[in-house]
Specification:
Layout (H helix, E strand, L loop, with lengths): L1 E4 L5 H8 L3 E4 L2 H4 L4 H8 L4 E4 L6 H6 L5 E4 L9 H6 L3 E3 L6 H16 L2 H9 L2 H5 L3 H5 L9 E5 L3 H10 L5 E5 L5 H6 L3 E2 L2 H7 L2 E4 L13 H4 L7 E4 L8 H9 L5 E4 L19 E3 L8 H19 L13 H12 L1
Helix pairs in contact: 6-10
């Protein structure tokens, strides 16, 4: 079966696929993302596509007449028209949890960096203020907080939220959370006290977002929720920027109504140097690096390739996100084998 791969993939899993499929491999991380027309030309004769960061156009889906399955090395599939793929009999598999550990690690790092004022302290050091103001000036002007005993509120208790909660047990923090799809009993199993959304914002010393972006969560939070936060609290967002109303979030942080924030996601990426939050000392901004670890590539390969091979062998893995496409997809697969 002709297979076009445009994702990062380890040598081991690439060789494993070559045992079963006729592979055309393009590594976007080394050569840059393909233009939509170039992706279409490369993929139009494929039965199988493995992708990661490419936006697969509707034209590509329609042009690839024999295509019956796409393995998308992402947690949330935002780069494919799922409805059209389903209509055309193209099964889509995602790779849930591929970067969960990486994002959870960064979330904890953000909490520590914010609480201990790491960035302002580094800036003061580089500006010569330690030498200028004396040995103890840094100590008295950059005092922060310990995590033990603090209240950490998690919005969203999926794979990443649960890993964050697990890590926080070692810090002896009280962890509260909100997720309409999780029961109190289930939350308690991973050390989270389930409360209302309002209580998370109002009670927490750290509010950390772990919410997928969809039609129900877009612009879900804004001034009303932020105003509930304590003045000494910190906001952490490593999920999706668009769950906040952008102008309300920026205005709120500019007014300095909370102790600080740490953000890894933005409404428009990449950012220009004039982004309004760059010059606020208590706001940490990183360039969407939550999932940028070498281990993530290994995770996504194992999840994605294993699921794909299972599907090709007649199984229906649980990470098929459009099960209504399965019947037609299998018909197309049978025709490709004929």
């Amino acid at each position: 079966m002709k297979t076009f791969i445009s994702s990062r993939i380890s040598d081991y899993w690439l060789e494993e696929l070559k045992k079963h499929l006729d592979v055309d491999f393009y590594d976007w991380s080394q050569e840059g993302l393909l233009e939509p027309k170039d992706f279409l030309e490369r993929a139009k004769d494929s039965q199988v596509i493995i992708t990661e960061s490419d936006m697969i156009s509707d034209d590509t889906l329609r042009a690839a007449k024999d295509l019956f399955v796409i393995a998308d090395f992402r947690g949330t599939v935002i780069n494919i028209n799922i409805d059209l793929a389903t209509e055309l009999g193209i099964v889509i598999m995602n790779t849930p949890g591929r970067n969960a550990d990486a994002v959870a690690d960064l979330t904890i790092a953000f909490m520590i960096m914010a609480a201990r004022k790491v960035i302002p302290a580094m800036d003061a050091l580089h500006e010569g203020l330690w030498a200028k103001n004396g040995r103890y000036w840094m100590y008295t002007n950059h005092q922060g907080y310990d995590l033990p005993g603090k209240v950490v509120g998690l919005i969203g208790l999926g794979a990443i939220g649960r890993l964050v909660a697990n890590r926080l047990q070692g810090f002896k923090a009280r962890v509260i959370g909100y997720d309409p799809f999780v029961s109190k009993e289930e939350a308690a199993q991973f050390g989270v006290e389930l409360v209302s959304q309002e209580e998370v914002f109002s009670q927490s010393d750290f509010v950390s977002l772990h919410v997928p972006l969809n039609e129900n969560t877009r612009d879900m939070y804004g001034k009303n929720e932020l105003e509930l936060m304590k003045p000494e609290a910190y906001l952490i967002n490593t999920s999706r920027a668009a769950v906040f109303v952008e102008n309300e979030l920026i205005e709120f942080l500019q007014q300095g109504k909370i102790a600080g924030a740490a953000l890894d996601v933005y409404h428009s990426e990449p950012l220009d140097t004039d982004y309004p939050l760059f010059n606020i000392p208590n706001v940490i901004c990183t360039p969407h690096i939550g999932g940028a670890t070498l281990d993530v590539v290994a995770h996504q390969c194992e999840i994605g390739v294993t699921s794909l091979l299972r599907f090709l062998n007649g199984e229906n893995p649980s990470n098929i996100i459009n099960p209504l496409a399965i019947e037609k997809s299998r018909q197309k697969m049978s025709q490709s084998k004929a």
